[in-house]
Amino acid sequence: MDQNHRGTTSTVPGEFVHRTDPADILPTSWTRLRENRFTVSAHWPASHPFFSPVAGDRHDPVLVAETIRQATMLVAHAELGVPVDDQFVMWGLSYTADPEVLAVDGLSSEITVDLVCSDLTSRGNSLRNLRSTLVLTRDGRLLATGSALARCTSALAYRRIRGQRMAALGRPVPLIPGVEPHLVGRAHSRDVALAPGPAPHQWQLRVNTAHTTLFRRPNDHVPGMVLLEAARQAAALTVGGGSAYLPTVMNVSFARYAELDSPCWIEAETVPTRDPSVTTVKVTGHQDGRPVFHCDLTSPSRGLAAAGVGLGLDRRLAG
What positions belong to coiled-coil segments (predicted)? Predict the structure, then answer.
């Protein structure tokens, strides 16, 4: 694609960000600045059936993760030559966000993303691995920093790798009863990603394949976004935050695909920190006795968050 090309809202097709519902497409345009540096404009919805405000008046911080994911895929498909039918898998994603700049009111909903690609590896003429490093700003204020590690696999190679697992593509999965929505900061049971487990701080992953945001298309495995949401909900249950839980720092890594036909167990525990103003929770997922993912989430401590004490981005970066 021409280096001076600039995408617009009408030219960010859903397949570039792996979304089918226009309401779920966050990027609105992009510009290539240098060989591996880009700027992406995005719009955060003030109202969304899934990415609804949390902690009273803050944008859902998981929007930062979704913006990182979509911006990385957009650049890979639109500028780095990755075919849209390639399988695009995030093996790691992290962000640190400023809770003050997450405020729903008082600031524009337009987000600017400065994105740099590195660690690019190819097989033949096809890009296979990349790392993206991102800085998100809002009205000129630093909103978040983040990074992602992604792998691109051709459709043919993916079918070969997955083998018989491809038979699960589009197959209905029984929807098991979930925990109470308000305990995990959700208003509707359809958004609950956890079911009660056999022990304290242990839950079964609840897979709702009819959820149009979490399962944006038929899949042969559990999307990473579902696991990320399950981690957030497990952390909220662990600290008792409910709708007030605000994960301003997240670091997730995936070890393997989570399959649709076997229970995936989610466990969480708090991690001691030297800073009493924040609480960190470690969440892990296991399936068939093997690790699936690991996620660390940090939020303002419950009492301090209620008193209005935030987790400043500059402070976290300096520390």
Answer: none
- pLDDT tens for 275-299 read 999 999 999 999 999 999 999 999 9
Assign residue 260 the CATH number of its domain: 3.10.129.10
**89/216 same-domain check:** no
Beta strands in the chain (DSSP E): 27-34, 37-43, 87-97, 110-123, 126-138, 141-153, 194-196, 202-205, 249-254, 264-271, 278-287, 290-300
In whole angstroms, give the CA distance from residue 278 to residue 309.
Answer: 10
How many angstroms separate the Cα of 24 from the Cα of each of 44, 142, 156, 198? Answer: 9, 23, 28, 35
Q: How far are the Cα atoms of 43, 86, 279, 308, 311 from residue 305, in angstroms, in the given order?
A: 27, 42, 10, 5, 9
Mean of pLDDT values over 206-229: 90
Q: Where are the alpha helices (DSSP H) in the chain?
A: 14-17, 62-78, 155-162, 224-239, 302-306, 313-318
**Angstrom distance (rounded) from CA 292 to CA 295:** 10
Q: How far is CA 77 from CA 14, 90, 154, 219, 281, in A?
A: 11, 14, 13, 20, 34
Structural domain boundaries enclosing 128: 1-154
Phi, psi of 265 (to 5 degrees): -100, 130
132 domain-assigned: yes
d(CA 155, CA 39): 28
Lowest average pLDDT, out of 80-84, 214-218, 264-268, goes to 214-218
Does 186 lie in the same domain as 144? no
Name, in order, each residue with C-beta under 8 angstroms of 312's C-beta and a sequence gap of 6 or more.
98, 99, 100
Let me know whether 266 and 140 are in one domain: no
- Among candidates 30, 34, 39, which has minimal Cα distance to 11? 30
For 257, the 3-state DSSP assignment is coil
Q: Is 225 helix (H, G, I), strand (E, B) or coil?
A: helix
Phi, psi (rounded to 5 degrees) for 169: -60, 115
Instruction: Please indicate, yes or no, whether residues 179 and 67 belong to a single structural domain of this protein.
Output: no
Is the model's pLDDT at 6 over the cut of 70?
A: no
